[in-house]
Write a structure and sequence with these properties.
single chain; 74% helix; hydrolase activity; Rce1/LyrA-like_dom; CAAX_protease
Length: 292
């Protein structure tokens, strides 16, 4: 009983509100944008402010500012980063993590195929625009294509997995877990993760599995590893696709059956993992176990 009261009293997530972090990020984004505009006015930028390379630069700066913002907000509440992140998980099969990540990628591809098939009858223009978007590392509009590709590769493979896992699986899971309970936090944080990405169903399941993986290992390194691997494999698939090949709406609709096969092949693996580890939502959140 005394341990429970101590944990409740020292819980920084009762005061560490996510909206404060969001406001901090919005403010940082405004300052970074203002700074880039000022540098362009002074002629100190090698590119124009409307150049597409500005987007990965701002994403990188915002991600790097996340740590100081959380530290500033959580400092007086004695937030322990080590307890939040955890150590390298012991007795954890990285081979199983690779298999799990591959299954997630296959499921996400199938979910994208099926969900956008239905969407193509409601918003065909949106689906066509999505299908015609250039690969992640390619753009013909920037004046610094090499720099753009390098930044995008860094953001997609390293920065995004670290920042997103820290926000969704560490901060949100603990904040909402403190407020509404861990099961609700797992579901709601995964829903938000899916909503903020193009592939709603696929990324919802991805977020769900990553949350359970974090609860299982009590280490953020495990979901970060899987997230990085997922993004590397996704980029590799993009690069393996025929360069310059564009899929028409009719071709996309005709191949929608592939999505069903992909989901059917990967769903049993993911469902098994979720059923085996859902009981982890009834245990103490990783922060409080690691902080002991």
């Amino acid at each position: 009983m005394r341990q429970f009261l101590s944990m409740a009293t020292l819980n920084p997530f009762r005061a560490l509100k996510f909206r404060c972090i969001l406001i901090g990020l919005i403010g940082a984004g405004f300052l970074f944008g203002l700074g880039l505009s000022l540098l362009e006015t002074l002629g100190w930028l090698p590119f124009k402010a409307e150049d597409p390379v500005v987007q990965p630069i701002l994403y990188l700066l915002l991600s790097l500012s996340l740590g100081p913002i959380v530290w500033w907000i959580g400092h007086r509440h004695r937030l322990q980063y080590r307890a939040l992140i955890g150590t390298r998980p012991k007795q954890f099969s990285w081979t199983a993590a690779v298999v799990l990540t591959v299954a997630l990628l296959i499921f996400s591809l199938g979910a994208f195929q099926l969900s956008f098939y239905g969407l193509s009858f409601v918003a065909p223009t949106l689906v066509e625009e999505t299908l015609q978007q250039p690969p992640t590392l390619m753009t013909a509009e920037t004046s610094l294509p090499g720099f753009y590709r390098s930044l995008m590769l860094l953001n997609v493979v390293v920065v995004a997995p670290v920042a997103e896992e820290f926000i969704f699986r560490a901060l949100l899971l603990h904040r909402w877990g403190t407020k509404w309970g861990t099961p609700a936090a797992v579901v709601l944080s995964s829903v938000l993760f899916g909503v903020l990405h193009t592939n709603l169903v696929g990324l919802f399941v991805f977020g769900l599995v990553m949350a359970l993986l974090y609860l299982k290992t009590r280490s953020l390194w495990a979901p970060i590893f899987c997230h990085m691997l997922n993004n590397v494999l996704a980029i590799a698939l993009e690069l393996l696709a025929a360069p310059g090949a564009e899929t028409t709406l009719a071709e996309f609709r005709q191949s929608s059956w592939v999505g069903l096969i992909l989901m059917a092949a990967s769903a049993p693996w993911l469902l098994r993992f979720m059923l085996q580890n859902w009981s982890k939502t009834q245990e103490a959140l990783p922060y409080f176990v690691n902080a002991k």
